[in-house]
Amino acid sequence: MSGFFMDMTMTEFPPLLDYRLDNGLRVILIKNEKAPLVNVTLGYKVGSKDDSFSHKGFAHFFEHLMFDGSKHVNRGEFDAYCSKAGGTFNAYTSFDQTIYHTTVPAHQLDIVLWLESDRMMQFGVQQIGLETQQKVVSEEIKQTVENQPYGTWRVQQGKLAFNDECSYQWEVLGDRAHIESATLEDVASFFYGYYRTDNAVLVIAGHIEFSKAQSSVEKYFGPLKKHHDSIKRNPFSESMKKTGSITIKDAVPLPAIFVSYHFDGFLTGKSIHADVLASAFADGKSSRLYNALVREQQLASGVFCYADQREHASLFTFSVTSAHQGIGIERLHEALDKEIWGMFREPLNEHELSKAINGAATGLAYHMQTNAGLADFVCNQTMFWDDPKRAFTILDTYKALDMDEIRGVYETIIKDKDAISVNVVPA
Question: What are 341-357's pLDDT values in tens digits?
């Protein structure tokens, strides 16, 4: 694989400048002259875990609202400015962050910086924009959760995994009723609480000159207000974790089970090990779950395993969908448990470990092939680890993993305890 990231040695960094404006905004500039393009990524450290209990889903709601007008940019004009500049844009929200990406030809950098600084400067969404995005997000929740086959299992997972005082209990999309009843006063309050310079990381990656980019950043973001009040965060403690089991009926063709285990938040350093374990269990047709449950026993039509990484508390999840209606959830649980506990009897061999490490590392490297992917990952490492250069040493960590480390992390995840189990059966 060739490209900006894979052409470097493991410990080689691209030209990078890291500094902070007087108002608290963290700025990372990365030079990549392989194409005459530049990506501007603006990340806010606010996700669904920062939603209030009466306004679940606001972090994701803002991902939509921020494209519907700001102080000097009217409704629909953000799209128009980007299109005229030959650019593309996107955004996403997770449990812990909200990220905005825009990629344009390098000479159009100032337009993007102006647009983003205007969105950060002052809340500018009007009532018509609020109502429009309420309908959009409400429909998204209906289509992807409420009316989607197997769509509600994650909602049930959150309720089983965390107690009522924990803001990890709800999904990123939140509560449709809370979105539909939101007022301009509600959303403006959320904006001024989290969309601020000291809660954001600005990453510019691409064909840039540092001095010119710095001047432009200072021009557009330098005048923004410096905040002195603290940022409100919902509390989290280990006592907020819990387990349980539920069986729900849904309009699905086949039974399916979703089994999760708590493990530490990603700041503890176990996230890489968990990604490798998930890859070993279910990545590809030679993985353990696919080989045992789909190919050999023919009990399942599909399997997956993934590490749901969150800042304070993550979930390691297995899923098995029945091969046909005659195979019920009890049989699926029995077969899955055998594979989960079988990892202790037969740990990963060298081939499995190598394949899983390569798979996880390749996914990361592929993500960082573009300016947008590079800026996204650097933004994440800066926001949570306070270290943008960490993005370029992660592959070293993958390469250094050994069997004992992987087994040790697995033992901390799969303990002799109850799992979080959501069973979905045909209505």
Answer: 999 999 888 888 898 88
